[in-house]
Specification:
heterodimer, A: 257 residues, alpha/beta, Rossmann fold, 38% helix, 25% strand, B: 426 residues, mainly alpha, 14 helices, 82% helix, binds adenosine-5'-diphosphate, binds magnesium ion
Chain lengths: 257, 426
């Protein structure tokens, strides 16, 4: 590909609790390049290291070994200040367990990244209402997260991640708590942001249909990349069937093993 | 082996255990000294209510044996303090308990598991409290002797019976608390609920019209301010005034302060993450802990009214001042426990702030600011309510009492800050 590489990992390795007896090697030798404007999907069985991987590439956690480059800059050499700026200016991160402030209203939660970026209050008010409307949680803006359902909280987390029109969206199973209708709405929103704003998206999912919206897909198994496919002009249906095929073949392999 | 596991759990929550034991220690010392003093003060000659007429009751309140009046009060306050201390101690064990419950433990086993931990702490703090009580009585006798009052506080057997039965009662209350906590946390967590979920703020249900809200707000403010006028007339009615004041205060907090904070977050907060974060946390802290602050105010004003609204002999006066100081310490600790119960799960919120890009120094500022503003809120209320009451009371001990109210507040604020820092460090 000839477009700019905005994310790159080199021999990425992550060991949890390295000093202790129950050290877990969650990732090893992962080399991935993400190009600007790409919509990359990550699939794999649970516990395979998907969350670990996307936490590494988005400065949420640091590798044990190997390097992560964001915009050609080694994450390890970035100052805390730079990382903070990167997070609220360029990155929209959707966490698997939502990570909303239970002490603050949905509105305040969603507005937080714009506040950090020092956007004007009127603009914030307008943007929050717009995006909340789009994701069907406008009527909940004055509630606190514990008063809302899992799906509603997930949508609030998505609003917060997308509010700054981030250049890079990283999402960990963003449709995990959503019904099929809301999932499809979200995927259409992602596609639109990808197409119109040129946002780069990296998304973990275990849903083959959701994965069929991506332009490239990597499969992780036991902390390593086991397979990779690109959509390459395939129509969504064909792409979807191919994804189902790969995921089920890896399942039967495991069964017979 | 349930005993060993209880011991391990106790070790893991060491710092919380120390605070719990400390509350118990102070309670023991207070009650021990209190009952013996009350006995000594009561030998003066008592007024009896003959045929239920109001004049006699008023005379009883103004001249009679104050120990009867204060006893119920002191015991209730101690129980409330122990309730919050116990709550603080066991709340973080809710998950632990739920897991045990799922694995088949019975409620009795869960209660045992909590009780073993509490009893160990009681075995340490009660003897220490009694020893301290002896020491304090000795000091008080020296003070009385120096003042040539001719009064001595002895250790009376009747006081010891009262003391022991109250302590048994208190331990019984703690047991009940633990039973119900074990039951509640198990049930709530099994149902997938969130114990910490905040109750909705404000609102009067069916009376949600704007005009009605406005009237209620005004009444709230009036009720909160009115008693200040009452203080300047200084009488036994102070206590009642204090309670009315706190009801009004609560209305003001719910209907004026919290909505004002909401508006503040929406306006100023959108310009500064720090303000959004701090105000949001503070809003939650006040809603969660306000009841304990009201208790401090009511208690101290009631005690003050006992000191100034009637004639006391030397022992009574000493007893009230001593109770004032102990209750102030205990009640501020209760405020701290209540707040810390909530703060202990706040790490998640600060981590999230970091994840969306708030840098560490801002987070530290947010934390200090949250604690500072919370105790400032408590401090301002204390100055307004207790301050006016103190001025109006014309007691010679006013400076001592003011110090007794403010110094524990500052100490508790500093301790909370240290505790919070350790929570956020993880
Ligand atoms: N904070 C952590 N501490 C220890 N081990 C962890 C931690 N997070 C993840 N792991 C382990 O790393 C492996 C990969 O986890 P994760 O990346 O969350 O998988 P996935 O998201 O694919 O389900 C798992 O074996 C998991 O147990
Ligand atoms: Mg995961």
């Amino acid at each position: 590909m000839d477009t700019e590489v905005i994310l790159k990992t080199v021999n990425l390795k992550k060991v949890y609790n390295p000093e202790s007896m129950n050290a877990v090697t969650a990732l090893h030798d992962v080399n991935v390049e993400v190009h600007k404007g790409e919509f990359l999907g990550v699939m794999g069985p649970s516990g395979s290291g998907k969350s670990t991987f996307i936490n590494m590439i988005s400065t949420m956690d640091y590798p044990t070994d190997g390097r992560v480059y964001i915009n050609n800059k080694n994450v390890m050499n970035m100052t805390a200040n730079e990382i903070g700026h990167f997070r609220y200016e360029n990155l929209g991160f959707i966490f698997q367990d939502f990570n909303l402030l239970d002490t603050h209203t949905m509105f305040e939660n969603i507005a937080m990244p714009m506040t950090l970026a020092k956007v004007k209050p009127e603009v914030i008010e307008k943007r929050v209402n717009e995006i909340a409307e789009r994701l069907n949680i406008k009527q909940l803006l004055n509630k606190i997260p514990p008063e809302c359902s899992g799906g509603q909280r997930q949508r609030a987390a998505i609003c917060r991640a997308l509010i700054n029109d981030p250049g890079l969206i990283v999402a960990d199973e963003p449709t995990g708590a959503l019904d099929s209708e809301n999932s499809e709405e979200l995927m259409e929103l992602f596609e639109k942001m990808n197409r119109e704003n040129g946002s780069t998206i990296v998304m973990v999912t275990h849903d083959s249909f959701v994965a069929s919206f991506t332009s490239r897909l990597i499969f992780i198994k036991d902390g390593q990349i086991s397979q990779e496919i690109t959509r390459d002009g395939m129509d969504q249906d064909t792409y979807f069937r191919k994804i189902v095929e790969i995921s089920s073949s890896s399942r039967t392999r495991r069964k017979t093993a | 082996m349930i005993f060993k596991e209880a011991l391990r759990s106790l070790k893991n929550s060491r710092s919380k255990a120390i605070f719990f034991a400390l509350t118990f220690f102070i309670t023991t010392a207070l009650l021990f000294v209190y009952f013996n003093m009350a006995e000594a003060a009561g030998t003066e000659g008592e007024v009896y209510v003959s045929d239920n007429n109001l004049a006699d009751i008023i005379q009883l309140l103004s001249k009679g044996n104050i120990s009867n009046l204060m006893m119920v009060f002191v015991v209730i306050m101690c129980s409330i303090d122990l309730f919050f201390a116990n709550d603080f101690f066991v709340k973080n064990k809710a998950k632990e308990l739920a897991v045990r419950l799922i694995c088949g433990a019975t409620y009795i086993q869960l209660t045992m598991y909590l009780l073993i931990q509490t009893v160990i702490l009681l075995l340490v703090s009660i003897p220490l409290g009694i020893l301290t009580g002896f020491g304090l009585l000795h000091v008080f006798n020296m003070i009385l002797a120096a003042g040539n009052t001719g009064m001595v506080i002895g250790i009376s057997s009747f006081a010891m019976v009262e003391f022991i039965s109250i302590m048994v009662f208190v331990v019984f209350v703690i047991t009940l608390l633990n039973c119900s906590f074990a039951y509640k946390s198990g049930a709530v967590l099994l149902a997938g609920g969130n114990i910490g979920a905040m109750k909705k703020s404000g609102g009067y249900g069916f009376t949600n019209t704007k005009f009605f809200q406005l009237i209620l707000n005004l009444i709230g403010i009036a009720a909160a301010v009115l008693p200040i006028a009452g203080f300047f007339r200084s009488s036994g009615g102070l206590a009642v005034m204090a309670i009315i004041a706190c009801v009004g205060l609560d209305r003001t907090v719910t209907n004026v302060l919290i909505p004002a904070m909401n508006r503040y977050v929406r306006k100023t907060g959108t310009k500064s993450t720090k303000e959004t974060a701090v105000t949001g946390f503070l809003r939650r802290d006040i809603q969660f802990s306000k009841i304990t602050i009201y208790l401090v105010l009511i208690d101290l004003i009631v005690l003050l009214s006992m000191l100034s609204g009637r004639e006391n002999n030397a022992v009574e006066e000493l007893m009230i001042v001593f109770t004032f100081i102990s209750i102030s310490i205990m009640q501020w600790m209760t405020v701290m426990f209540r707040l810390e119960t909530d703060l202990s799960s706040r790490k998640k919120e600060y981590d999230i702030l970091g994840q969306i890009g708030t840098d560490e120094s801002t987070r530290t500022k947010i934390m200090h600011s949250e604690i500072f503003r919370f105790y400032l809120f408590a401090g301002i209320l204390t100055v307004i309510y207790l301050g006016t009451a103190l001025i109006a009371s014309h007691t010679a001990q006013a400076p001592l009492l003011a110090a007794a109210a403010v110094i524990p507040l500052i100490a508790v604020a500093v301790t909370t800050d240290l505790y919070y820092r350790s929570v956020l460090k993880g």
